[in-house]
Amino acid sequence: MTVNKKPRKRKRKVSQDRRGKPAVEQGSSRDPTRRQLLKYGLYGGLGLAAAGLGSWWFWPRPRGQQHNMIVVVIDTLRRDALGCYGNRFAISPRIDEISAEGIRFDRAIASSGWTLPSIASLLTGTWPTIHGALGKKTIVTPIRPELPMAAEVFKSNGFSTLGLGNNAYTSAMLGFGRGFDVYDHRHAYNDRIRRADETIDTALKLIHQHRNESNFLFIHFYDPHLDYDPPPGYKAKFTAGRRRPSPPLGWKYFRSIGSDRQAMMTDDGIKPPSAEDSDYIKGVYYGEVNFSDAQVGRLVDGLKKMSLYDQATLVITSDHGEEFWEHGGFEHAHTVYDELIRVPLIMKLPRAVQYAKSLVKAQIRQLDVMPTLFALAGIEKPASFVGRSLMPFIMGQTEEHLLAFSEGTLYGSDKLAWSTQHYTYIVDLNPQAKRKAELYNWRNDPHQKEDLITKQPGIARDLYQEMGQFYSKLLARAKTMSQPKVKNMHPQIIESLKSLGYIR
Ligand SMILES: [Zn+2]
Questions:
Q1: What is the per-residue pLDDT for 318?
Q2: Which residues pair with 428 in a beta bridge?
Q3: Whether residue 176 has pLDDT greater than 90
Q4: 33 C-alpha vs ligand 1 centroid, how far in Å?
Q5: In what order do the strands lie in the sheet containing 313-317?
Q6: Of all helices (H) and strands (E), which one includes residue 221?
Q7: Closest CA relative to residue 241, chosen from 273, 287, 279
Q8: Best exposed site among 122, 125, 301, 487 by fewest CB in 10 Å?
Q9: Could you tell me if 342 and 97 are in contact, meaning their C-beta atoms sit under 8 angstroms apart?
C-alpha cells in the first residue's frame, strides 16, 4: 500500500500526549457520557477493545476550544462521479480539494443501497437489522428508540447538535431528529425539495449562531437524487452537444418515475438506453453533482470566513450511489451491487492532527465514521456503535480489510451483500429468485462483471456459511429488541399530516 507522507508544518504530535490513557479513563462521575450510557444500559463492554479507541491514539479536544464536527451526506452520490475517485469531467473541484488536503477512503461500504437503512446505520453505528429502519415502498419502520443516535452522544458531551435533512426517509418521525437541538427537516418529493444552496445558507447561519460552541452538524443534500433537475447553468455544462433522449427515456419518463418506480425496478431492470442517451442522462446527473460540489465549496468558504475551518472535522460521503444499467437496473434501492454500496468517503481532520495517509485502500464501513469522530473528540463510544475508529488506518497503523455487510432493498426482494478482503457474496432472499447468489472478486473485477458462483463453489460455500452465521446472530439479537411500529410514508399522507401540523 502506498504511504503518502504529507508535509505538515507547525503540527504538534498529539498522539504522544495521551498515549496509554484509554478514553474510558477520561470520564468521571460527572461525565455525562457515562450517565448517558448507563441510562441506555450500554455501559457494559466498554473496555478498550469494545470502545474501539485503543490505547494508541486519540486527539483530546482542548478544554474550552471550539470544535465543529460536520458530516455532509450527499444523497445518491456515486463514488466515481467525483474527480478524486477518477471522474474526468471536472465535476467536483471543491470536494477534490478537500480530498487533496485530507483522507480519501477507496473502499468504504455503506450498510444499504437506499437511504433509510444506510443513513440510520451511519447515525446509529450499527447494522440495519439491529437499528430496524427498513421497509418496502412506503411502509417502513423507524430507528429502534433504545439505540443512542450520534447526535445524542455528541449532545451529552457538550456539543450543540444541528441537523438538516432533505429526504422523506430522514424524517424525525423515523427517529432521525433524536438528539438534535435543531433538526430542520423539510422533506421533499422532487419538485418541492430544498436545494443544496438553501441547505448551506441555513447551515452557515446555524454555524454562525453557534460559532463559539462545539457543534455536531449533519447536513444532507438531496440534489443528485431523481428527478435530475440541476439549475440551468449546471445542466448545460455536462449535456452540451448531446441530444436529449426521446421517449420513453425523455424527461417525461423521468418525471413519471416517482409514481411508476415500482414497475421500473423489477429484478430484470429495464431495457438499457443507447450509449448516447445514457451519456445524456449521466450528464444531467453530473450537473446535480457539480452543483452539490459547489455548495460544499460554499460551506468550506463560509467556515474559513468564520475562522472555523482549520479546527473543523469535515466528512463528505453519500448514503448510496446510483445505478446506470451496469447490472441491468437504473436508480437505486433494489440491489446491493458496488455501484450502490461502495460510497465516497472523504475526511478532513483538524489541522492539529498529524496523520500518515491521504489514501486508505483497505475496505472499511460507513458505520466506522461515527466511532472515528468520537475518537477525534475524545468521546467514549457507546457499545451499540459496532464500527471501529478509522484513526489506525489514517495513522498508517493497519491496512486490514474489515468485513462489510449491506442489506435491505426498498423495491423487490431483499438482498444481502457480504464483503471480505477479496470477495463480495450477494444473496437474494426471495426463494423464487432467478439468481439466488452471486460471487465477485472485487479486487480483480471492480465492476462486478464476472459472477464466480459456479466457478468457485468452495469460496461461495464458505462465504454463505460465514454470512449466514453473522446474519442469524443479527436476527436473533433483533428479536430481543423493541419492535418499532410500522409507518406508512406515502408522500400525500405526510403532506396532509404536515398541513394539519402533526409533523413539523
Ligand atoms: Zn438516498
A1: 98
A2: 415
A3: yes
A4: 31
A5: 182-185, 160-165, 215-221, 68-74, 313-317, 342-348, 103-109, 359-365
A6: strand 215-221
A7: 279
A8: 301
A9: no
- What pLDDT is stored for residue 498 in this prediction? 59
Convert 173-208 to b/e letters by CB count within 10 Å (16 or more is b).
bbbbbbbbbebbbbbbebeebbbbbebbebbbebbe
Instruction: Specify whether the CB–CB gap between 407 and 129 falls below 8 A.
Output: yes
User: How do residues 59-98 score in pLDDT, each as one tens digit?
Assistant: 455 445 678 999 999 999 999 999 999 999 999 999 999 9
Q: How far is the CA of 406 from the centre of ligand 1 (A)?
A: 14
- pLDDT the model gives residue 254: 52
Q: What is the pLDDT of residue 255?
A: 47
How far, in Å, CA of 333 to CA of 327, rounded?
13
Model pTM? Answer: 0.84
The predicted-structure confidence for 347-367, as pLDDT tens digits, reads as follows 999 998 989 999 999 999 999
Domain residue spans in the chain? 65-403, 406-487
**Three-state secondary structure call for residue 444:** coil
Q: How remote is the CA of residue 17 from the centroid of ligand 1, in Å?
A: 40
Q: Of 245, 233, 238, 229, give the one whose Cα is nearest residue 278.
A: 245
> What separation in Å is there between the alpha carbon of 117 and the centre of ligand 1?
9
First to last CA, the chain: 49
Looking up cell 468550506 gives 300
Find the range with the poorest average confidence among 76-80, 246-250, 423-427.
Answer: 246-250
Give tens-digit pLDDT for 266-285: 344 456 777 887 888 888 89
pLDDT at position 248 is: 52
CA of 119 to the centre of ligand 1 (A): 8
Cβ-Cβ contacts under 8 Å for 242 (sequence gap 6 or more): 276, 279, 280, 283
Q: How far is residue 303's CA from residue 236's CA, in Å, rounded to a whole number?
A: 30
Tell me the CA–centroid distance for residue 444 and ligand 1, in Å.
28
CATH class of 65-403: alpha beta
What's the confidence (pLDDT) of residue 257? Answer: 39
Residue 267 CA to ligand 1 center (angstroms) comes to: 19
Query: How close is the Cα of 133 to the center of ligand 1, in Å?
Result: 13
Report CA(319)–ligand 1 centroid distance (Å). Answer: 5
Asked if the model's pLDDT at residue 476 lies above 90, the reply is: yes
List the one residue out of 296, 231, 238 whose CA is nearest residue 94: 296
The helix or strand, by DSSP H or E, that contains position 217, with its residue range, turns out to be strand 215-221
Cβ neighbours of residue 192 closer than 8 Å, sequence gap 6 or more:
none
Determine the pLDDT at residue 384. Answer: 98
Res 4 pLDDT > 60:
no
The DSSP secondary structure of 162-206, one letter per residue, reads EEEE-SGGG-GGGTTTTT-SEEEE----GGGPPPHHHHHHHHHHH
Q: Are 348 and 376 in contact (CB under 8 A)?
A: no
- Whether CATH 3.40.50.300 fits 406-487: no
Q: Could you identify the residue written with the cell 447515525? A: 123
DSSP, collapsed to helix, strand or coil, labels residue 5 as coil
